[in-house]
């Protein structure tokens, strides 16, 4: 009986300690960069690509804010049964 207990303990310890912990590798190698540090800002459709960086940023912000204002569906809140006095403020900065 004593040997069976030792054998059971040994077999259990082999299975318990032989498990490997798999750490997933980060496959996203891109680094986040602040929008202020970008050498050449993205050009939104309708902005003149020959403008300077500051003017392109302003044009991008204006066009993006306009796009969000036109396409943001405020009626989604009706489906969530939120109270009517709920105030929603959305700020977008690039």
Give structural attributes:
94 residues, 0% strand, 3 helices
Q: In terms of structural class, how would the helical and strand content be classed?
A: mainly alpha
User: Helix tally?
Assistant: 3
Q: What distance separates the N and C termini?
A: 73 Å
Counted beta strands: 0
Q: Helix fraction?
A: 40-55%
What's the multimeric state? single chain
The biggest beta sheet is recorded as: none
Radius of gyration: 29 Å
Which consecutive residue ranges, at least 5 long each, have pLDDT under 50?
Answer: none
Briefly say what this structure is.
It is built from 3 helices and no strands.
Q: What does this protein structure show overall?
A:
- With 94 residues, the chain is mainly α.
- The chain has a domain at 39-94.
- Helix content is 41%, strand content 0%.
- It is built from three helices and no strands.
- The mean pLDDT is 76.
- Residues 1-18 form the signal peptide.
- Keywords: Signal.
- This is Protein TonB.
Q: Helices and strands in order, then pairings?
A:
Layout: H1 2-17, H2 53-71, H3 76-79
């Amino acid at each position: 009986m004593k040997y069976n207990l030792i054998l059971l303990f040994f077999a259990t310890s082999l299975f318990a300690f032989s498990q490997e912990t798999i750490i997933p590798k980060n496959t996203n190698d891109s680094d986040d960069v602040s929008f202020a540090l970008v050498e050449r800002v993205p050009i939104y459709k309708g902005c003149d690509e020959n403008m300077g960086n500051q003017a392109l940023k302003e044009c991008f912000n204006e066009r993006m804010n306009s796009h969000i204002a036109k396409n943001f569906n405020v009626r989604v809140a009706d489906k969530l049964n939120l109270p009517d006095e709920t105030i929603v403020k959305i700020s977008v900065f690039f």
